[in-house]
Specification:
Blueprint lengths: L14 E8 L2 H6 L1 H10 L6 E8 L8 H14 L4 E5 L3 H6 L6 E6 L5 E6 L4 H14 L2
Parallel strand pairs: 1-2, 2-3
Antiparallel strand pairs: 1-4, 4-5
Helix pairs in contact: 2-5
């Protein structure tokens, strides 16, 4: 496992769900239904990738090392996924997201936003995202 510099230009080339979450369990749980649906769909790793940006600046004080440990464990379980540590809250600030939030963005293979929401998705929205992913992967 290694950490390296990342920027959004690396998002081009695959259809993706980009998830931005605060470094808190409560934020992770907000869109767990979508992540489970994505896992179940067994999307092709050569054309699809989940990218999770974790804002460790928005974590419960003193929990940063636990958040990083959890990310490292998830990377081992899901090596085809991408996990980004945002220790300064740069993405939340740039995208004007709420604190303690979980935002979901669907990007096409050219990196263009096709769908986005800041906050918990409804079951209907989870289905919309899954339908959109299938369409973008055709």
């Amino acid at each position: 496992f290694s950490y390296k510099t990342w920027n959004s230009a690396q998002l081009v080339g695959k259809v993706r769900v980009l998830q931005h979450i605060a470094g808190r369990t409560s934020a992770k749980e907000k869109n767990a239904t979508l992540i489970e649906a994505i896992k179940s769909a067994k999307l092709p790793h050569d054309r699809y990738q989940t990218t999770t940006i974790v804002n460790t600046d928005d974590a419960i004080p003193g929990s940063g090392m636990f958040v990083r440990s959890s990310l490292e464990s998830n990377k081992k379980l899901y090596p085809w996924s991408q996990f980004i540590v945002d220790s300064n809250g740069v993405a939340r600030g740039a995208w004007q997201l709420d604190e303690e939030s979980s935002a979901v963005v669907v990007l096409d293979k050219d990196g263009r936003v096709q769908w986005a929401k800041d906050g918990a998705l409804t079951q209907e929205e989870v289905q919309q995202v899954m339908d959109l992913l299938q369409k973008l992967l055709k």
